[in-house]
# Entry
Amino acid sequence: MERAQEHAVTGPAAGAALELLVHGVGGARPEKMLNDPRTVRITGDDTAAVFRRADDADADRPDQVATATGGPRDRPVPEAYVWCNLTSGNGTRALWLLLLPFMVVNLAHWMRPAARERTRAVRLYGLLVRLAGLTLTVLLVAAACEVALDLTAWQCAGTRACAERHSWLGFLSPAVSVGGWWTLPGRRLALAALVPTALTGLLWYLSHRTWRAYESQEPPNGKPEPEDALGHTALGRPGFWYGRRLVARLRAAHTAAGLLTVAAAVGTAAARQDRRPGGPALLDILGWLVEGALAAGGLATVWVVCRRGRSEHRLDRALDAHLVRRLPLATLVLLALTLVYAGWERPGWQSAGRLPGDVTFGGIALIQGALVIALAVVASVLYRRSGRDPEGRAALRGLEGPAVAMLACALGGVMSGGVSQRVSDWLDGTGTFLAGPPVLLTWQASVIPVLLIVLLALCVLLGRGALRQARAERAAVSRDYDVDPGDPARTRRIARARAMATLTDRAPLLVAVTSTTTLLMGAGALVGAFATGKTPDRATEGTHPFLHGAAQTGQALGSWLIGLGFILFVTWGRRAYKDASARRTIGILWDVGTFWPRAAHPFSPPCYAERAVPDLTWRMATWTRATGGRLVISGHSQGSVLAAAAAWQLSPADRKRVALLTYGSPIERLYGRWFPAHFGPAALNALHDDVDCWRNLYRLTDPIGGPVRLSGDDCGPEVDRAPLADPLAYGRTEDHPLPSPILGHSDYQADPAFAEERERLLARLRPEVPEQRGRQAQPTDTDSPQEGGAEARPDKSGVG
# Structure
């Protein structure tokens, strides 16, 4: 129990004030946040904790709040919430790069257009994303089956030349190990099935371990508020950050789906052999029973995924224990029986050609395309019905969710195709021994160069636009700093930084083009694979030489590119395991990508906010109730998003005691555009009305932070302050004798405007000056325009 809770609200403590600092992506040490080398942990653990200066450890006790003169404390107590170890504190988490498709499809769940909850369209949207996530699990396990079962155990071990080339496969090869027990095709497949089974078990273990650490953190048990009081945002619901039940159900379903995929890969190969004329009747019957059981298991898995979504209106502590335990166990037993059935001796059964992987991968691709198209239709309907985007701020006019879901499917295809191509090339050095991976994967690899050409052309267009923007910004830089002509090189650098920062706002175009091109190219690959049944180079034999040569080049280049992409993922993850700086960079990626709960895929990296938001909510709520005081929560970058989410979780009475200071905040520029249902204008306006005061700082050179575009109140005419100067001074001045750097997204505290806005908010909390509440603070000497000052330039935020 933290020290602030040890005392009742008596005496001077009732006038206490608190400043709660929350760092952004990349993390920060409490010594730096509090500007003091001596800090103590007030509450929390080694993963996330609240720190104070050593001198302020007992500052909120009744006998410590009063000063030596008997009056109230002259300044609020600063505290730092350090949460960086939730994402980037462990080197093994770099391996989460391999789970990137799962994380991306989980983001698509939260990108739906703003609409009232509990409508059929909203439920259907969530269901379609969950089904898309299920197909990604099947795709990952199917890729592992393709490598272990088809390429290794079936093709390479069944070919004498390939088995002799890889001596470790000799005991599986009937030509090398004559009479060996494992040389029968079914037994080879059963043994190789241990690899995808182990992969599925590893995913289950990681999901279960992180589920116990993150989803099991209970937020304050508050009462649900009317939707209108929260601006139709779900972030204020009691159960929003408590997805324990749903993640457990999805984990059971996805584990079952993975095990059923392995069982299907082994069982269908044996059943196909048993249906040939002259086969044993008993095995034929067993084959039908196995396939029927696999179909029933698949239907049960899909039913579990469709049956229940998120429960947010209350803390749902139920845990469907029978389902969570019995479904994976039942599929594991079915897998074991299937392996026994496949290992039965079948005279005359020899491995030749490929396992039926084309049908599997083709079916997955077809289902994923249909789900994305259906998701786009539902999203369009929701967007038209909502009517809550009058300024057109949504990233893709309601289609951001389907576009991102398409990217997740594309990433899954690239990774599965990449590992299959590379393993095939490794096993079959000259390309003469093996039939290779399924034809569809080869077609998908062949369209990769076309996609890259489209993206390269788009990047060139965006680059040209940025250059034009940089030239246009030169005049604005000279005008803002009142220098003419100034230093041309200095002006160009500042203008270039401003222009590059605007590229963030072009991300919707990049996502839209990539998703559309991927969908069209994937459809073309699917048609080509099933229409011809041949690889692109063989399908174009006898046609024009140029077309045939282009097909061969695209196939070879695409195969190398798709494999290179997978190798880069593995290499980056390995480097991050050993290199702390690389691990920090990857941690930043997860800070941005894993903010949202696991609502669509249980194997995605865990949601750190399900620990961080309850931490902040508990801290603010217990402190205000224990002391009766007020507080400022100050958040940088992603910390501002956590601060807003925690403020939504407070009761209305507690929110009135909270003031927000955000800087470098992506809360509107990124979250408001890509997640309009939760950070749209209505939600941000409702939060602004509920809290005591909100001030936001940003720079034109910041590629992440931006304005929140809200009208003001007694704190000021606008929530956004005019864009801060970056750099602080154009040239050398008496205050800046050395050249000032261009800071971009970092070091907002270095700007005098930060101290001014911080002091303005803290002054509202001091009990000795209650008259300042209800009127705007008078400008200080630092408000006067000066060279390089923040107020010396016009407001370019687009509001007011």
